[in-house]
Amino acid sequence: MSDFETTAAGGGSATAASATTMSSEPGTQAAQLKKVKKQKVLLMGKSGSGKSSMRSIIFSNYLARDTRRLGATIDIDLSHVKFLGNLTLNLWDCGGQEAFMENYLSQQRAHVFSNVGVLIYVFDIESRDVERDLATYVNIISALVQYSREAKVFVLIHKMDLVHPSTREQVFEERVSIVRRKTAEAVAIVRKQKPEYPASASVSEGSGMIPDIDLDMQLFATSIWDQSLYKAWASIIHDLVPNLGVIETQLASLGVAIDADEILLFERTSFLVVSKWTSPEGETNPWGDRFERMSNILKAWKHTCSKFTGTPRNAEQFSDFEYKMGPNFSMFVTKFTTNTYILVCMPPGEARFNSAKLNVAAARPWFKFLDGPVVAPASAGGTPREGTGSGGGGQLHQQHPQEYGI
């Protein structure tokens, strides 16, 4: 039987037994970090395709059922979404009515499609006018290639929950094949050359670069009613996050130090997975969609906390979440930095569990750059210290700026 508990703050004691070296000196780490990054993101698609619904679920903490009361977007709904401390998404939610689309492609063409970092185009799988949808898509891609050739393109084949499960994969693959051919045609319009893209070419979800076309495109099957939405948006955000290499290196060092099977780093509000680390043992986990499942579960848990505490959905709802599955595994989710939560999954054992929680707390100063521009420590002697644990374990602190005591 599992032991489940949610607490306001974690506690426990641990003794120091070993140390693992962190990835870089403070000064070196500061030199590697990039400044605040701004990205223009276009969210486009036919009116009623579900653009505003998915945006509201991811960034405004709507429940799927609540999106039914959202009205149609008029012209362009511009919002600035702060993601972590050093990434701002200038999100342009573009109304999909035909009149607006014609305006984007004519009078506002340069204004809308210049300096774009990411285009997210949403197709409604249940649309009754597929040919017109594809014609509009071709024009959008042509404008994008004309003004923002380096932009990344994410195509979401949406409302897949309306397709019968037995044919869902086949329907998706057929639509992917059509979209890729139409993308080749769109690029050819700008380059004034005949596209050479075989109709029989094999495709797969999120396969990256299109053969012979300099356009970075990924495609996803999505629905607001399951975790597929989190998979798509986590992939969109992943490549935009500044200092991703530093984050991944530090997570790997922390994972090895605390003997974890897996570590996930979530953005605080959306619960999208920013980065992850998996041990060789964790790689044997057969559930390939477990990351987006955890995003969905934790977002639902946050909504439940909001419902029973009466606090706003955007507010911070919990600081610790623990789950101990007997002899199988232990897991905890805890507030990490101002803008993140961290999930640690590890083998069972109370001492190991408490030690990991204390050392995750000790590691926080090394991830402060996630909250904004980093300031290098004045000297090596000014390393941060953590207070005592609640179980009589004495003071836990970093003996050296590069070491975790476990």
Automatic annotation (TrEMBL):
Pfam family, one: Gtr1_RagA
InterPro entries in UniProt: Gtr1_RagA (IPR006762), P-loop_NTPase (IPR027417), RagA/B (IPR039397)
Principal localisation: cytoplasm
Subcellular location: Cytoplasm
Signal peptide: none
Composition bias, Polar residues: 396-406
Protein name, as recorded: GTP-binding protein
A single GO cellular-component term on record: fungal-type vacuole membrane
Taxonomic lineage of the native organism: Eukaryota, Fungi, Dikarya, Ascomycota, Pezizomycotina
